[in-house]
Structure prediction request, 254 residues.
Amino acid sequence: MFNQSVEKAFAVLQAFTAERREQGLADIAAAARLTTGSAQRCVHTLVQLGYLRRVGRQHGWALTAKTLDIGYPYLAGHAVLEQATMHLADLNHATGESVSLSEPDGTEMVFIARFPSHKRFFIHMSVGRRLPMYCTAAGRAYLSALPRTEVRALLERSTLRKLTSHTLHDIPRIIELIDAARELGYAWANQESYLGDLTIAAPIIGTGGQPVAAVNLSGPTSRWTLDLLRERFAPLLLETARAASARAGSSHGA
Prediction:
């Protein structure tokens, strides 16, 4: 039986974002789409349970480290992550650039592992960060391992918008790039999520032959062009994806 109290509690927790780490009651209520009274009761309970804490003099609240207890067991027992970690570390060491692992959730890719660049890189992508499939190399790599009918259906469910001046949000053009990725074995994106960020990615295939995740390599425009990044590192990326796919377990999919 669906429990609305649990739904409200999670809505309050999800009201906090990387950009809005501290919020007052009115902001929490608006973000969670709750009345002020309902939000106040949820906040009080979550404070008592240790998931929220009071901050500042404005009667605001913030998440506590205890919220990590919810996600840690998922990552700790993640079969794909366990299989891929060594190979991701090797790719990071060989290239010196940022390497990440992400998996699908709806129309987005969620980062579940990150190995930062050995050199200065202005973009920090923490574990748990979500980005749309349609404009990311990881998302297109994952989609390239799905049938075209599923790809179009997923793109049509997506909220297509420009995250940067380079973001492609035209479905036929995106499908062209996914088809190209299907032929080459890897996808790419040119500053479509963040300005200055060039990315290539390849799908990780599970034991059932379905894509379960994607390995992503990022390089800044200050050091690379997209053509050079692809030429230099695509073979290593594909080798990493094949190795990580060897015994990869099943995942949740889109």
The beta strands are 22-23, 52-55, 60-63, 98-105, 108-115, 130-132, 187-190, 197-205, 211-220. Residues 226-245 form the longest helix (20 residues). The longest strand covers residues 211-220.
